[in-house]
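Meet the record:
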Amino acid sequence: MSELLALLAPVAPLVPAVILVVVSWLVARLARRLLVGGRSGATAKGSFQLQIVYLVVAIVSAVLLLLLLPLDPTLRGQLLSLFGIVLSAAIALSSTTFVGNAMAGIMLKAVRNFRSGDFIRVGDDFGRVTLRGLLSTEIQTEDRDLVTLPNLHLVTNPVKVVRASGTLLTAEVSLGYDVAHARVEQALEAAAASIGLRDPFVLVMSLGDFSVSYRVGGLLEEVSHLLTARSRLRQAMLDHLHGDGIEIVSPSFMNQRALDPDRPVIAPHVEPSSEDAAAPAEPRVEDVAFDKAEEAATLAQLEAALQRTREAIADLADDATGSEESRKERQQVLTRRLAQIETAIARKRDEVESGE
């Protein structure tokens, strides 16, 4: 018996380390059985949790193994320090993106430039927001696919948001120089109005070598039907232009015809009718496109007027010239003006918030 103990004496210090390895293996097997259930096809959630358990077990086992192995105290300390440095560096490098996405998520929550259900475009990604998380934002694309965008990507890149109150829906088409622009504008405005766009407009975008480029658009109030409205607008343009006998030469159509050299290629002049002359002026595109910017500018002007009025009241209190009655009357006028401006600012802020 003494001889057996003498033989086992050199390996006795390794027994705790062996026991630790066996226990770690049993814990990993138990975790797999509890999370996956022993099946070959693990769920995504169970697989992720199992990987976390494996990682924690591996780190704890490595630290305990270094403590249980029969090593020189100086060497053990150096190995523990090296392990701690490697682990800290790994956590620091991986946490940079993690913390950045978390801070970006908090910033997006504070700014509130878009919400769930809004259409957004970030670079080449376009879709409707389905989920806003702390680390990422999920959108559903036109193909019904789900795309997860890191919040840091949304903060460091321009985000185009389609406002829930409406967006300008536009389309372009190129037509020949032999068609009067007034006739084109009438057909295109009718096409935009036929699909329910509000305040339709037509802009001449460019005068090309072979054609004139027009842009037609209008305010689409029901943005949830954005994709369908885009298709319907182009269908209506085809129907109204072809119905009016206007050829579409977009995008680069060259039509060669034998023409009289003495006949200029100029569309016939159309005199405006008396009804058109008496019609009220149409709304400008800027009135629709930059309405929020205009509201913000008006609010800034009101706030500046509020500040000037407060300064005038403060200056009047320090002014000793004039009679007491005139100063009191002037102060009453400024006080009434101050109240009116504050009321106007509160009303304008309510309008801006309700329009978002």
